[in-house]
UniProtKB/TrEMBL annotation, chain B:
Residues 2-145 form the UspA domain. It comes from Marinomonas transparens. This is Universal stress protein. CDD domains: USP-like. PANTHER family: STRESS RESPONSE PROTEIN NHAX, UNIVERSAL STRESS PROTEIN HP_0031. Belongs to the universal stress protein A family. Pfam families: Usp.
Length: 516, 146
């Protein structure tokens, strides 16, 4: 314990020394960090979000939608046909009692969900509706439903091609299934594609899995505690994360992992209460969602603008097609990889179709988005976003929406945001680490290098402003999907063989329930 | 006709008393009696874990199994065998009361011998102790050793 205390003290001292350098005297530290960060990442963001020629439609959004649609059709709408079996698997109806003590389907699903349910559901949805209007919700739900098939494909492969080491530990994910699966099928280039994925996964871990979380946690804290520099929040977060991932103080992660599900339940419960209190407006809210989905209700870019925002934020929230979940699900104990595919498809449903929709409905029903009463169209602010009550965006908008009905909820939300941010960071530190060790080998030195870099990026994320951070976070996460979905296209016939065989054995009674 | 007695053990002093009582029963029944020592590591498939914990879980299970085998099962088995009693033992993971009952039912055991619970605190008050749950739900006779 004393050793860890020294390490944490040394880390804080290093950060404090870095921050006290005189070069920051003329300009505030936050502004400086923001300027450097925006100029350093701009080219990457522009590349990933480049529009299709002659349109304003980013190619990457089309890439994800086409991928999810192809998997949905190729597997015959597996996400709708077999959802009952998915639930039975999570309940443990098909779990062999001799496997007790190892990672259950429920645990693998819960761990993956703790990495995805978080700020994407709270802040991300607010960003989507404040740019894309209520209609973005429709496209978000559709993306969630289609994304279930992407998740099914990648998680099946994640388990099938995982590495099981002699010491009993397990590593899996797109870098493993791309390299091993391509080799098995005799397709060249698997090693390169796997390495490209690993590079993007590291960037995704530092962006969406880290900086976005730190940034939004700081935004939420300033809402409750008043304005103060972001690097202070960043340093505190970095020290706690450092204590867990470098110091090995697992008790902090354990406590958080127990509180986070409770916070999730409280969040959904509060949203339900608000919806029940405003039950008379639910019909009107869905009217806004459908009307906005196809007309845009006056937002920039019309219905395409709503569609882009809906799809972007759904992908950012549920990470379907991104490949991160395949890393989380690969540790499950099962002799049938396809069973984890069935379980994982519940993830986008819970994350996007249920939780994100709740957030969007609360924002719409509490009328945070300002509408011109004369035209029924949204009032667009100077920054191109829909004008909101109080001019807020991101997590502050969600906070204001919940606060409009439950005055004390912003305090609870602040705590939820911090815990969600923390648990997401812990999850993504692991995903990034797996990608890092895939590239640089499994050594203590390589692990420590990544972990320290991860903590430094927390401070940068908290200090930078929302715009550049959210752009980089999106770009980094979506870049992972580029390599992953290429891999999935080549490997989906393997999943099809598994699916056909499994369903036939399930139908014939060869695969039996252990519980009635 | 043989008689199997399931004995719940956990390495505690109370568990040792359960073994001692089962040994006495075995001596009274004679050579037809067989003791099965079961050490259950409490585990639930519905807990929340970090990705790192999941990736190491298989390894952790092996460590926990070996530890329970060496610390709890083997010393008790050695003592029973030296006393000439037919005994076997193993480690299981899950909810202790359910596992002990299932093993007894599947193996047509005559009875289950456990020690009086030493569990205290809120959890035991709200959800009941392992012993109380076993007594309430068991399909075979249960002897609770004080």
């Amino acid at each position: 314990m004393k050793k860890y205390a020294h390490m944490i003290t040394a880390f804080i001292a290093f950060i404090a020394m870095s921050l006290s350098t005189s070069s920051y005297a003329a300009e505030s530290l936050d502004a400086k960090v923001n300027a450097i960060f925006a100029s350093a990442t701009g080219w990457f963001v522009n590349l990933i979000f480049a529009p299709l020629p002659g349109t304003s439609f980013p190619w990457i959004v089309l890439w994800l939608v086409v991928g999810a649609s192809v998997f949905t059709l190729y597997f015959g709408f597996v996400q709708f046909r077999n959802i009952g079996h998915s639930i039975a698997l999570v309940k443990g109806d098909y779990s062999n009692p001799n496997d007790a003590g190892e990672v259950s389907h429920f645990q693998a699903l819960a761990t993956a969900l703790s990495g995805t349910v978080g700020l994407g559901n709270i802040a991300g949805v607010a960003v989507a509706v404040s740019i894309g209007g209520a209609g973005a919700t429709f496209w978000m739900i559709l993306a969630g439903l289609l994304g279930m098939a992407s998740k099914f494909t990648e998680c099946t492969l994640g388990v099938k091609y995982r590495n099981e080491y002699k010491d009993g530990s397990v590593s899996g994910g797109p870098m493993y299934y791309i390299s091993k699966g391509f080799k098995e099928r005799g397709i060249p280039g698997g090693g390169i594609l796997a390495a490209v994925f690993a590079v993007f996964c590291i960037l995704g871990a530092l962006g969406g899995g880290n900086m976005f979380q730190a940034n939004q946690a700081h935004q939420q804290l300033t809402q409750v505690m008043g304005n103060y520099p972001g690097w202070i929040t960043g340093c505190i977060f970095a020290a706690v994360v450092f204590a867990v991932i470098v110091g090995g103080i697992k008790s902090i992660a354990r406590v958080t992992d127990k509180i986070v599900p409770l916070m999730g339940v409280l969040y959904v419960g509060a949203a339900l209460v608000i919806l029940l209190v405003n039950a008379d407006k639910i019909g009107w809210a869905f009217g806004q969602i459908f009307e906005g989905a196809f007309t845009g209700l006056g937002i920039a870019g019309g219905f395409v603008g709503a569609l882009i925002q809906g799809f972007k934020r759904a992908a950012f929230s549920n990470e379907a097609g991104v490949g991160s979940a395949a890393i989380a699900h690969s540790a499950v104990q099962t002799s049938e990889p396809i069973t984890e595919g069935f379980v994982s498809l519940l993830e986008p449903f819970i994350d996007t179709v249920v939780i994100c929709t709740m957030t969007a409905l609360v924002i719409i029903i509490t009328q945070q988005l300002m509408v011109d009463p004369a035209t029924g169209m949204y009032i667009i602010a100077e920054n191109g976003r829909i004008a909101t009550e109080g001019g807020v965006s991101g997590v502050a908008l969600t906070s204001a929406a919940f606060g409009a009905s439950i005055s004390w909820f912003p305090y609870l939300l602040a705590l939820a945001v911090i815990l969600f941010a923390f648990s997401t960071m812990i999850s993504w530190s692991y995903y990034g680490l797996k990608a890092w060790t895939y590239l640089f080998g499994e050594s203590k030195k390589a692990e420590l290098t990544f972990k320290i870099m991860f903590c430094v990026f927390i401070i940068i994320g908290a200090a930078a402003s929302l715009g550049p951070v959210i752009d980089f976070s999106d770009a980094a996460i979506f870049a992972m999907a580029v390599a992953n979905i290429i891999g999935l296209y080549f490997l989906m016939p393997i999943v099809k063989v598994e699916l056909t065989s499994y369903l036939a054995r399930l139908k014939s009674g060869e695969i039996k329930k252990y519980k009635d | 006709m043989s008689a199997t007695i399931i004995v719940g053990v956990d390495g505690s002093e109370a568990g040792d008393r359960a073994v001692a009582y089962a040994k006495r029963l075995a001596n009274l029944i004679g050579s037809e009696c067989k003791l099965e020592l079961v050490c259950v590591v409490e585990w639930s498939p519905y807990t929340f874990q970090t990705p790192e914990e999941n990736s190491l879980r298989k390894k952790q299970k092996e460590v926990e199994t070996q530890s329970a085998q060496e610390r709890v099962i083997e010393p008790a088995l050695k003592a029973l065998k030296e006393a000439g009693i037919d005994a076997s033992g193993y480690v299981k993971f899950g909810k202790a009361s359910t596992i002990l009952n299932n093993i007894a039912v599947e193996g047509n055991a005559e009875q289950i011998v456990v020690a009086r619970s030493t569990e205290q605190g809120l959890s035991a008050r709200v959800f009941g102790s392992v012993t109380a749950n076993l007594v309430m739900s068991s399909n075979v006779p249960v002897t609770v050793v004080s």
